[in-house]
Every structure is written in structure tokens, then in C-alpha cells.
């Protein structure tokens, strides 16, 4: 097929996407039936309703990935890898646990996991809000680029590795190597931190930090007092490479 | 003044002048050399192979008269819309950030003029290159700088990058002097700081995860786009098998001569294997899986002439990619800037400091004045000319070997000039039937 003709087609498709339909009747997809994730996502990319329910997810991968419309998707059960990956809008709620890379590279919208999340939750995400009511495993918020992540429990080691922008709130404890090689993301931890990663330092909590933290906790529906949190961020000592740094990584 | 050699002075083969200068530089600065380009050392290469033209036992095709096709289809294994290119010579991934916006635009213009594809790089897709590229491959890299689903959907193919030939196993570092406000914004980082590109993907590890990741990319793009997997040439036989198992539609293998914008010299020269050694391993892997020509193989790293293109394809590649040669065609290392190259401590024909942003040719820079020197229309035309020459040269050789399509070239058309090349390419030493390592 001619490439230019295809470009036009893409633009045409995209014009249909984003706004979302008026129909508010919930459409249910049972992933145990024929079609599975592929037909679910095909529908979510050109939605005919504002509301979807997914039954029997059984750990399937890429559930509700690539949404870019203002729709709500409720996943009733456990999701596999990359649930809600690259979403740009919409609200996805996993009523269960989520596998590796939930909401990876999310651009906007909201993703909520009522249980726990596996590794790399919210990896490289640019925007939106990811709420994990339970705990998240290693590398939560790795390379995050603007997303807000609120974890009700604890996060594993190497979380916020090379985190570039955005905010991460941990209401429990953080594992070793928190914020290793962090850039400009801001981290708030209520409990203990195993160790801080290279160039990640504790920073003072000022009023503007308590205010943004209160807002994030309210958005996530968590009742904690911002005064119980400590703030961490970049020491900005590794922003320019020199050989004297070779021992600091 | 007579030269040292004329005065009977002897240069050490072990400590030659470049080696001595390297030690002196390390001692003076305390840092290793970071540079662009690929491996500069001599390694067995396509120059060590020759074609057996047709004569009595095979019929040649008439040059300039009889048809010899060059079009290739890439990614028709799973994708709804595979790429159909008019020449098997594609443009390799090079980032906006490493290259100026003008250079990226010129690559798109040149590639589109001859009906081939160009590729984004670490740093996202620019409007200039999307606008000027009929076939644009979107690289999906560990850093995910500027990565977003809108660009993913606007691409014509997706290339999951595991590594590159210049630095298999290495990430990257874009030095602060090249981080303009625009580059910084695309990468969501402060201007002026050194930007590290990660060496591992943040949300998958290993081939089983990659299969799930490729599944996600297909889901997000509604199974429309071919998915490539690019590896730097090391354990190529195994890497290609695993890439196919993970679901790749196309495997890209980049040999150690493949270029980079910025890596430690020690990495460029000492990690990875030559392109020549990688191709037969990749082809063997594809053949054993029964997918040779079904999962396409793109080879890059040191492609300069139509002979290189033809040799890569005869060894089993479906297409090739060029990077360094494309930059030279745009105007990189042009002698018209000889004085300016000398002023920054280099010389036209030697310039490889792609990392430091002072490129007199305006290609590997973000400096507005320097990059304005490159006219994207003119540079694009030069690239198109060069791509046409590569294609016609490959056709010339294919016709001489009696082939009506460059894809019909085969290993039986080749012999090797050296034992090393014969062993690596798995073709006989010229004038013999001996393939070292095969006939034991």
C-alpha cells in the first residue's frame, strides 16, 4: 500500500479518536471468550461507549493498552504485563493485581490498581496519575517522565531509577537504591528508605511540597498527613560527566 | 626536513603514533576518548569477497536492457501494512539530538526520493523527518526519550532497539553541549546537562518478556505495523533465533563497523564482531527456524558501495542500512570545510567528534548557525543520488551474476580473498573449494 495514502488514513483514524462517544451503557468483554485482548483493544481504540467492564482477565497481557479517549475501563481480576500501557486519557481500574509495566509510558489519564503491582509500574510514563493501593515491586517509576505515582504500600528496590520528571508518593517503605541517578523527579516517602541511590539526597519539605503532596494524596483517596513524609530528589552532582565520578555510581 | 622513516627511525607496530597519542591524552585529561563513527581498525570485510560473474556455466543478464528488480518487502510476517521499498538500501536510525533537524529532514528527503525508509533515533520523532519521510521506522529504545503513542501510530514500522554494532551492551551519553532547549524538551530533561541513554529497557528483560512487549506494541497499533528487532552483532546466531521467537517481523543486525554519535573509543574498537562474521550466523539462525526470507534480515555496519550491498544480500540479507555513508553523502567531512576541521583539531576525512556539537558541516550539531549551513533540499538530493548509485551498482553485479532480482544473489556467487574472510563469510577461498571451519 502507498505510504502517503496510509498517512492520510492514520490522520482520519485519529480524528475519530480522543473525544469518546456519548453512549454510557457499560459494555462487557469476557476475555475467556473468543477474541480476547485483541478484540477488546480494537473496541477501546474506537470506543462506542464510555464505560467498559472486563471479566476473566486471568493475567492476560496488554489489557486496555493504547487508549486515547475519555472512557472508563474496569478490569475485574488480575492483569498481566503492560495493562493500560501508553494510555493517553481515560480511567482504567484493575480490581486485583497488575503485572509488570502497568501504565508504562502513560501520557495522561488515570490508572488505579486495587491490589499490588509487579515490576516497573509506571515506567517512563509522561503524565497522568497511577495509583497502586497495595505495594509495587522493583523499579517502580523507572525513568518516569512526568507521571504522578501514588503507592499505598511500599516499593521495591531501584524505584525511580533515572527518574526524569513527575512525582512519586510512597506511603509505606522504599527499598534499596531509591532514586538512583535521578534527574528532576520529586519523591515522597512516609516510611523508611533502604538506601538512597547514586546522587539521590533527602531534601527539605517546604510548604509547596506539603501542598502538592496533600493534593496527590487526596487524588488517590489516601488519608495520610503530609507531615509524615520526607522528600528526596537529585543532588545534581552527576549532571556532568567527569572521571572523578567513576567511583560514585 | 626528512621524514622520520627517511632518517631510519622505526615506528613501533605495538605503540604506533595513534596509540602513543591515546596514552598522552589519557594522562593529560584523565578521561577516555569519546567519539562518533564506528570501528576504525581493519577487520575482515566485504572488500575481502569477490563475485563470480557468469560465463559458460551461468548466463548473465544484459546491462541497461534486461530487467533486474531491486524492490523489497519488509515485515509481512504479522503486520497488516508491511513496507514495500524500491531499493534494499535503507537509512539507519540516527537521533535528532545527535543530528541537526536539517540533517534529519535531509535524510527523509533523500530516502523518500528513491522510495526507501529512514529511521528515527534516541530522542523521538521530529515533524521535519515525519513530514519528509514516506516510510519512517520509529525506534523504540531503552531511554524512551520523546516516546509517545501518537508517534508510534504515525510510524510505518517500529524498531525495538536492543543494541547497536558500535557498542553492543552499551547505552549512550548525549553531552550537554548538544542539549538545546528543543532537544531537552523532547527528552524531558533540563537543557545543558549530560543525558544518559540507558542500556537496558526499563520494563522488560530477556526474550520471553520481549515477546510480551512486542505483543503490546502490536495491540497499541492494531497489528498494522511491522516490528523490527535490532541487535548489535555479538552472539548473532542466538540473538537472531531469540528475536524471531519473540515475534520480530524483521531482524536488524548491526556489525562493529556501524557508527554511533558518541561512545567510548575502547567500546567501539573492542566490543562486537565484524559485519561479515555476523551475516552467516544470522542467516543460519533464520534458515534453521524455517523463516529465512519470511522474517527479513537487514544488515548494517560498513556498507559503502553497491558491491557491499550486493555482497550482504548474496550472503542472505534482505536489505541493508547505511548511517555513516549517508552522513558523508549529506556533506559530512566535506573538504570545503578543511580549514574549520583543522581549527577544531581534526581534518576533513578524519572528523569523528560527533559528540561535541561543533561539526563544521552542520550535521552532528545543534548549534543554530552551524546547522543552518546544511540545506536539507540540496543535502537530500545528494543522498538520493548516492542511494541511486548504490542501487545501480548492486544491479550491475546482480545482472553479471545472471540475477533478475538483487534478492536472487546467493552465497554460491561469492568467493573470499583471505582465509579469515572465507571462514567468517562461509564461502570458499578463491580458486579453491575450501571453506575454513566448514570442511573439517
Automatic annotation (TrEMBL), chain A:
It comes from the Bacteria. SUPFAM superfamilies: Alpha subunit of glutamate synthase, C-terminal domain (SSF69336). One of its GO terms (molecular function) is oxidoreductase activity. CDD domains: GXGXG. InterPro entries: Glu_synth_asu_C_sf (IPR036485), Glu_synth_lsu_3 (IPR012061). Residues 1-19 have a biased composition (Basic and acidic residues). Residues 1-25 are annotated as: Disordered. This is N-methylglutamate synthase subunit B. It comes from Actinomycetospora succinea. The lineage of its organism: Bacteria, Bacillati, Actinomycetota, Actinomycetes, Pseudonocardiales.
UniProtKB/TrEMBL annotation, chain B:
Residues 107-132 are annotated as: Disordered. It comes from Actinomycetospora succinea. Residues 78-331, 360-403 form the Glutamate synthase domain. One of its GO terms (molecular function) is glutamate synthase activity. Keywords: Oxidoreductase. Transmembrane segments: none annotated. This is N-methylglutamate synthase subunit C. The lineage of its organism: Bacteria, Bacillati, Actinomycetota, Actinomycetes, Pseudonocardiales. Belongs to the glutamate synthase family. One of its GO terms (biological process) is glutamate biosynthetic process. Pfam families: Glu_synthase (PF01645).
Amino acid at each position: 500500500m502507498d505510504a502517503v495514502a496510509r498517512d492520510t488514513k492514520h490522520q482520519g483514524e485519529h480524528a475519530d479518536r480522543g473525544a469518546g462517544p456519548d453512549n454510557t451503557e457499560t459494555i462487557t468483554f469476557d476475555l475467556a471468550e473468543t477474541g480476547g485482548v485483541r478484540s477488546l483493544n480494537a473496541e477501546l481504540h474506537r470506543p462506542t461507549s464510555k464505560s467498559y467492564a472486563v471479566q476473566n482477565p486471568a493475567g492476560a497481557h496488554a489489557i486496555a493498552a493504547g487508549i486515547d479517549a475519555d472512557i472508563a475501563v474496569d478490569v475485574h481480576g488480575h492483569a498481566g504485563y503492560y495493562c493500560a500501557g501508553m494510555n493517553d486519557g481515560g480511567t482504567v481500574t484493575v480490581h486485583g493485581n497488575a503485572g509488570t509495566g502497568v501504565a508504562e509510558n502513560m501520557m495522561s489519564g488515570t490508572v488505579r490498581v486495587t491490589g499490588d503491582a509487579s515490576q516497573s509500574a509506571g515506567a517512563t510514563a509522561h503524565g497522568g496519575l497511577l495509583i497502586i493501593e497495595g505495594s509495587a515491586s522493583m523499579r517502580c517509576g523507572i525513568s518516569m517522565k512526568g507521571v504522578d505515582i501514588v503507592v499505598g504500600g511500599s516499593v521495591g528496590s531501584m524505584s525511580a531509577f533515572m527518574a526524569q520528571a513527575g512525582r512519586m508518593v510512597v506511603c509505606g517503605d522504599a527499598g534499596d537504591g531509591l532514586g538512583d541517578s535521578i534527574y528532576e523527579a520529586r519523591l515522597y516517602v512516609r516510611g523508611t528508605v533502604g538506601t538512597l541511590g547514586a546522587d539521590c539526597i533527602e531534601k527539605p519539605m517546604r510548604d509547596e511540597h506539603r501542598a502538592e503532596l496533600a493534593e496527590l494524596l487526596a487524588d488517590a483517596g489516601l488519608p495520610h498527613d503530609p507531615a509524615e513524609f520526607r522528600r528526596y530528589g537529585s543532588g545534581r552532582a552527576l549532571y556532568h560527566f567527569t572521571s572523578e565520578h567513576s567511583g560514585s555510581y | 626536513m626528512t621524514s622520520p622513516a627517511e632518517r631510519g627511525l622505526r615506528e613501533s607496530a605495538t605503540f604506533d603514533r595513534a596509540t602513543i597519542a591515546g596514552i598522552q591524552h589519557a594522562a593529560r585529561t584523565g578521561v577516555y576518548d569519546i567519539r562518533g563513527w564506528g570501528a576504525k581498525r581493519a577487520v575482515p570485510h566485504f572488500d575481502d569477497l569477490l563475485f563470480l560473474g557468469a560465463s559458460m556455466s551461468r548466463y548473465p543478464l544484459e546491462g541497461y536492457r534486461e530487467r533486474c528488480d531491486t524492490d523489497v518487502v519488509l515485515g509481512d510476517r504479522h503486520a497488516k501494512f508491511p513496507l514495500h521499498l524500491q531499493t534494499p538500501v535503507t537509512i539507519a536510525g540516527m537521533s535528532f539530538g545527535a543530528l541537526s533537524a536539517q540533517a534529519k529532514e535531509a535524510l527523509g528527503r533523500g530516502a523518500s526520493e528513491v522510495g526507501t525508509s529512514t529511521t528515527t533515533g534516541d530522542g523521538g520523532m521530529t515533524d521535519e523527518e515525519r513530514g519528509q519521510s514516506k516510510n519512517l521506522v520509529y525506534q523504540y529504545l531503552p531511554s524512551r526519550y520523546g516516546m509517545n503513542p501518537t508517534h508510534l501510530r504515525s510510524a510505518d514500522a517500529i524498531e525495538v532497539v536492543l543494541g547497536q554494532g558500535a557498542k553492543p551492551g552499551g547505552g549512550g551519553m548525549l553531552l550537554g553541549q548538544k542539549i538545546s532547549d528543543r532537544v531537552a524538551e523532547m527528552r524531558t530533561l533540563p537543557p545543558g546537562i549530560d543525558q544518559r541513554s540507558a542500556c537496558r529497557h526499563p520494563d522488560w528483560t530477556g526474550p520471553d518478556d520481549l515477546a510480551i512487549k512486542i505483543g503490546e506494541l502490536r495491540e497499541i497499533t492494531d497489528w498494522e505495523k511491522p516490528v523490527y528487532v535490532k541487535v548489535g552483532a555479538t552472539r548473532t546466531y542466538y540473538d537472531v533465533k531469540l528475536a524471531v521467537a519473540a515475534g520480530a517481523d524483521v531482524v536488524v543486525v548491526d556489525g562493529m563497523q556501524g557508527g554511533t554519535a558518541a561512545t567510548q573509543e575502547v567500546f567501539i574498537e573492542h566490543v562486537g564482531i565484524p559485519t561479515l562474521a555476523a551475516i552467516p550466523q544470522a542467516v543460519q539462525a533464520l534458515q534453521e527456524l524455517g523463516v529465512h526470507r519470511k522474517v527479513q534480515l537487514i544488515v548494517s555496519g560498513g556498507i559503502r558501495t553497491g558491491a557491499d550491498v550486493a555482497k550482504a544480500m548474496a550472503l542472505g540479507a534482505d536489505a541493508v542500512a547505511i548511517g555513516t555513508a549517508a552522513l558523508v553523502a549529506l556533506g559530512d567531512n566535506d573538504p570545503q570545510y578543511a580549514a574549520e576541521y583543522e581549527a577544531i583539531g581534526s581534518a576533513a576525512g578524519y572528523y569523528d567528534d560527533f559528540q561535541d556539537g561543533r561539526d563544521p558541516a552542520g550535521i552532528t550539531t545543534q548549534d543554530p548557525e552551524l546547522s543552518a549551513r546544511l540545506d536539507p533540499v540540496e543535502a537530500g538530493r545528494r543522498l538520493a543520488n548516492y542511494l541511486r548509485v548504490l542501487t545501480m551498482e548492486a544491479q550491475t553485479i546482480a545482472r553479471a551474476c545472471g540475477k533478475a532480482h538483487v534478492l536472487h544473489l546467493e552465497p554460491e556467487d561469492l568467493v573470499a580473498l583471505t582465509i579469515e574472510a572465507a571462514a567468517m563469510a562461509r564461502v570458499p577461498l578463491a580458486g579453491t573449494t575450501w571453506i575454513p571451519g566448514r570442511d573439517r
